Amino acid sequence: MSEQPSRLVRRDTRLLYALAVVITTSQGSLELTLPLNLHALGYSLPLVGTAVAALGLGQILSRIPGGAWYRMDRGRSLTTAALAAFSLTTMGLGLTGSWDLQAVLAAGHGFAFGLVTTFMLAILIDLRQDQRRAVATMAWYTASISAGYAIGAPLGALAIARFGYSPSFWISGGVGLLATALSLALALDAAALRPQPARERRRWGGTAVAALLALPAIIWLATLLVFYLNFVSDLLGAFFPIYAVGIGVPLALIGLLKSVNSLAATGIRFGAVGLFRYLDPAPINHGAVVAMALAVVGVSLFSGQLWLLAMFALLGICRGLIRVTTATAVAEEHSHPGNSAGMSSGVYNAGLDAGSMLAPPLGGALAALVGIPATFRLAAVALPALYYLAWFLIRIRRRPASGSQNLPATKAE
To answer: What pTM value is reported for the model?
Structure first.
């Protein structure tokens, strides 16, 4: 690799980190503003929930098309177009009080956000020319996402307090337009150094199905794991405050627990760069899966303040580590010939979306039958059991010469 392309790759990678911060700052602000605005407009809680769910529905519907459309040589134009739609739909939410239009715009916004995040992860995978920087790249990328969300929620709250709901959507959309402008600085055509095989001309559906069927089992395993990750996180996010208030936990502590969780998740992602330089990520990944399950059970058993702070910090650490190991596994698996960065990114991100979408309705139905604490315990046992069943089946079916059997399998050098 020549020096000039290497500089371009490094510059584009750093620019993608910055883009991740800006985009999720906008998204975090919108996710706070949307339900509060609908509630202020007088809509019932079921209607508020349905409109918010449209965000997630749009995201998951975008993943496979986005993965199929993606190619490195058009990554910049696809990302810029999706970011423009992302920004305009955000601003559009501030122009109407109609529930129908709000729901449609929310779905369109979710679709655009899903495309953006699918394209960005795929670009990062394609920019990574060798295995050496896999963990560092994914640690910084996922930490940038987390940092943006941490900025976005306070930004949304401040904008609502100062200007009201409609201007808050415009401020959030303006941050998105900044990301759109930044995306034009990507130099992907000059930096597209990884040889890409010629593609046959086929119908979109056939291409997408073929790409899905060609994905390695490790991609599906990583997807299942992040489904577990988001299912547990959103289950706690939806029902822990209700449970906590019922057992006498102060509201101030509930807010502090959420903050500690986010800070721990963000901090460990930066720490993972050094941690995985000396340790094999695979056993750490398995330890994080088990520790997260134990922490969820722990939250349902005890209500002491220090205990809850420790459990939520542990949950954040586990979340941060698993996001790094799974994203790294997806990136490393793409190094094998024939694997699609776009489809790998789409499927992986769809796992995150599915966990977020299914946790509140399934958790609510189960909590109505057995109670919130028992729901936490069942999720803590059932989902890791499902993951380890899939992991075991993949492990015994893979040929010895096929490469890694863990998630991920290599050390960061």
So the answer is: 0.78
